Structures are given as C-alpha cells and as structure tokens.
Write the structure tokens for this entry.
Amino acid sequence: MPYSRLAGRKYLEDGLILVSTLAVLLVIINSGFSQTTHGLYSRWFPVMNAVAFILLASRMSLNWKTRQLQVRWYAGQTFVLVLMLLALVGELFFHHILSGLQVTETLTANVFIYHSIFVFLFLEEVSTRLFSLKKSAVNAPFLLLISFLFFILVGSLLLMLPSATTRPIPYVDALFTSTSAVCVTGLVVLDTATDFTLFGKWIILFLIQIGGLGILTFTNLFGFIFSGSTTFQNQMLIQNMLNVQNLADALKALVRIVVITLIIEAVGGVVIFFLVDSSIFSSPGEQAFFSIFHSISAFCNAGFSTLGNDNLYHESVRFAYGLHLVIAVLIIFGGIGFGILLNILQYFREKVLQVYCLFIQRKPYRFKSQIITLNTRIVVFTTLVLLVVGMFLFYLFEYHNTLRDHPTLFGKLVESFFASVTPRTAGFNVVSIVGLTIPTLMIYLLLMWIGGSPGSTAGGIKTSVFAVATLNFINQVLGKERTELGRKEIPANSIQKAFAVISLSLMAVGMSITLIILNDGGKFDLLKIGFEAFSALGTVGLSMGITPYLSDFSKIVLIFTMFIGRVGFLTILIGLIRLFRREREKQYRYPKEDLFIT
C-alpha cells in the first residue's frame, strides 16, 4: 500500500477515536448535567454524528480500494453507518419539521439514538484497537490489572455526576461503590435504594455486568466482531482467560460465554418479574428494572440490591422463598465458572447427539470419552460439598436463632440453602448478619475465604485451590508422593500455585485487618472488622453493618482489599514483576537438599 494511503488511513482512525471519545464525553455531560446543559444535544450531537459518518465512510472507502476490507468488518461498519444515517435523517425530519408542532417525545427518542450510536462507536473503535495490539508487548496479568483500574476510576467519576445521586457524595464513597461494583463485591457505604437515582443505578448495573463478565471478555468480543480477524497472541490470551483446552475453540467459547450469560440473566429476570409481588412497586417499569437488576447482580455474584441496605432481608421480600431460590440458582450458575458451564453443556450436547443418532437416524454414534475434565469434576464436587455442609450447619446452628422467623420446614430449608450459597461471594442476605451465632459467623468466614470457582464471577481463593490443598495434605498424611485424582495426576506447579494463592490471601486479609484496627479499632471489635475484611477479599459483600461508618482510610483499605480479591494477589504481583523484569529459564539446576519441616 502506498505511504500516502497508509498515512491517510492512520489519520482517519485517529480522527474516529478522537470524535468517538468526544461524543461519549458529550453523552456523559448531557446525562449527568442534564439540567445545566439544556439544548446541548441539538447543537452538537448532529455535528458529531455527521463528522463520524464522514470519517467512517472515508475509511471504509479507502480500505475497499486497497482490498483491506473483510466481510465481518464490512458488515459491522455498515451497521454503524446505517445507524448514523438514520439518526441524520431523523434529525432532519423530527427536529426541523415536528419541532414546530411541539412533539417533544420524538426529540427525546432521537437523543437516545445518538447516545446509543456514540457509545457503540466508541466501544467498537477502542475494542478493535485493543484487539489488534500484540499481547506479547503487554503481559496478560498486567493488562487485566490496568483494565480493572480503568473502569473503577471511570465508574467513580460517573457516580460523581449530579444526576447519578440524590445528594452530593464524597469522592471516596463514589470510588468505594465503583470498586465494589466492578469487583462484584456488594459492600456498600451508601444506600443504593435512596442515595442513587435511576441513572446512578444503571451506572452501577453497567459496572457490575462488565466487572462480572470481565473487561477483557467484552473488548476481545467487540474487537473480534468488528476487526474480522485475530492473531495468535489474542487466541492465546483468550484461551488462558477462559481455560479452554483447544486453541481453535477460544473465540467460539468467548461468544458462547457472552450468549449464555445474557440468556441466563434474561431468563432469571423474567422469572423474578413474575415471582415478586407487584404491589410493592409503583409501576410495571419499576418492577421490570428490579427484576433485571437483581438477575444481573445475582449471576455476577455482586450482591447489590435496590431494596436498600436490608437487601433481601427487606420486609417486602423476606418470606418470598421462590425469589430466594431463583437468586440462589443464579448465584451458583455465575460462581461455578464459565469454563465449567461450557464443559457441562458440551457433555449434554454429546448425549443429545447420541440419542438422536441411535433413535432418530438409527445409526451408531461414537460418544466422545473424557468430555468432563478433571477441573470440572473437582469444582462441581467441591461446590456440592460446600453447599450441603454449609446448609446443614446453618440449619443446625440457626434453628433456634435467625430461623425462628420462618415457621415452616420448607422456609427454614430454603433460607438455610440460600445462606450456604450467598457467603461464597454473592453478598445477598436473607437473615440479619448481626444476629448470627458465633459458630455460624466462623463458617461464614471460611466460606467467604474459599469463594467460588476459577474463571467465574466469584472471588475468594477458589474451590479448586481449596480442593488441591486438601488433597495435598491428605496425601502427606497417607505418605503418598504424588497427588492423584480420577486416574489423573495433578502437576506440582498447580499445587505450588494453590499454596501461593492461599499464602498471599492470608497475607492480604491480615494486612487489611491490621490497618483497619490501627485506625478504627477503638470503635469496632475484632470480629466485625475481620468479617468486613474477609467479605472484601472474597468479594462477598456481606456486612455486619460497620462499613458505612468506617473512616476514609479504612474505606480505602477495603477498596484495595476488594481489588486484590477480584484480580488476585498473585496475578497482580506477576503482572507488575513481568512488566519490569522477564525471568529467563535457567539451563541448569542446583543440587537438592531437604529442609527440616516438622
């Protein structure tokens, strides 16, 4: 390609990035300062849209002439162009013709169209460029670290907008709320129901969704859809991120995960809509938002609720056992891991194909063996054990305590089951946490520390780490040299990584508790402070009610604890160390010498 054309395309791409960024900032200003920027959209939105349309059409034309245009890229860009053209036509028709008739609804609809176009264009342009980066230049752990930090800071600024809150709030509270949402924790220092407007709740919901699925999931998906191609480095990144065995299936798995997530959340929202009592809402729209919000919050294991600080213990839904069961199932689906869900779906797909071939087509079908991986077996078994044991112990310790409010056996069992699910990074509560017995609180600390499964929306050290550590010490007691399970041997590096995660998590929670005690130890006892710290590290969100009353320093400590719990202490250290130092594999080994351990 001639240099002039290369330079021209570069200028067009930079221009699109600049225009889309300015347009998104305009959307934020118009939404966050709507009362002070009346009429701003009518002057600048059409101009931004027209400029972006010209730049995008010019780039498509240049790529067409140089035969650089791919089918998927062409389809995606054409879709954006059509939206822009419709907005321009709509502006010409609605604004200049119907404005004289004072039809304000059409103008409002046109503003919504502009908002959608600009946000969509911005995501497409940024994702395409992130997707085209050589991931070898920036290591994946550091990229994950930076992406979470970016959205936390952006979310905090959005929550500071006047239209997002019902009253002015300190920045540390906005930063805490944004971190809790992006890290899908659920700890709150403000009342979600009363301190945030509908616009603010939508911001929180957006942060929960993008934090639950993972920022890199969205950027890679958008980039793949609109770039039309991929690189080996991108496929490796996605494979490691999703724990997919086959490199060729990495991108397919990415699409399936997003589709499965949206389907589960949509079904959950519909079920919640019909289960919840409509009399507690002022309109069907409010009921629909409640259903969508809680479905996404449950699947992403966030624990945020629009019912206020009482959460699902609110008197309006305290005995809504059907709602509690749906929320619990969504939490389990979200916390079991995307890779595990894909593996289980693959197993059932093979079973269905086998039945179809044998009974419909009347021909033999060779069923693939070993579809269920060892990782799936460990995660599912550990999850079931923790759920059953947690439910039994909660029922035992709380039967004459918090469960006294539920007179029926069915109610007690449902609440015990929910109470066993929610400490593993969900954050919803159906009982008073302050009223729990000491043994129950100790069980909660353990469950919060373990958390959910790897590759999921959950936090904690993860079920696989807990299972590997348990198997290892059992083998030590039995005198076995190798850790084996299901006719498979667990490699030594997996065991080493598991114990590294455990050690770092204990260090993180210990530092968090110590710093909070040094600052607020005179106001709160050790149990309450420890509970908040474990809840933050496990990205759980359960609270004994002291978080809103902590000092700003202690809130910042919990912010870092939530961030460490979501990203992972080991991931943070690896990303930072690899950024400044690349360890080369040594071509030699030193002689071994045993240490006196016990």
User: Anything to note?
Assistant: The CA atoms of residues 135 and 233 lie 6 Å apart. Confidence is low (pLDDT under 50) at residues 97-107. Residues 1-132 form one domain. The first strand starts at residue 484 and ends at 485.
